[in-house]
Amino acid sequence: MMTGQQYKKSLNDNREIFFEGERVRDPLAHPVLSQCVERVAAGYDRFYSPAPGAVSPLMAVPHSAQELHERIPLLHESDIVANVTYQSLMTLTTAATRIADSLPDYSKRIRRYVADAQQRDIRIVECITDAKGDRSRPPGKQDDPDAYTHVVERRPDGVVIRGAKLHITGASICHELMVIPTKAMKPGEEDYAIGCAVPVNSPGVKIVDTSYAPRHPDVRTFPVSSRTHMPEGFVIFDNVFVPKERIFLDGATEQAAVFAHSLGLWERLGGLSGMAEEADQLVGFAQLIAEANGLARESHIREKISEMIIHATLVRSALEAAIAKCHVTEEGAFPDELYTNAGKYHGAANYNLMVRHLHDIAGGSVLTAPSLADFENEQTGPLVRKYMSTMNGVDGEYRARLFHTVRDITADAYGGWRAVTNVQAGGGLYAQRIVTRRYYDLNGAKEKALHVAGLDSKSGK
Question: Could you say which of 201, 316, 394, 456 is the most buried, measured as most Cβ atoms within 10 Å of its Cβ?
Answer without folding.
Answer: 316
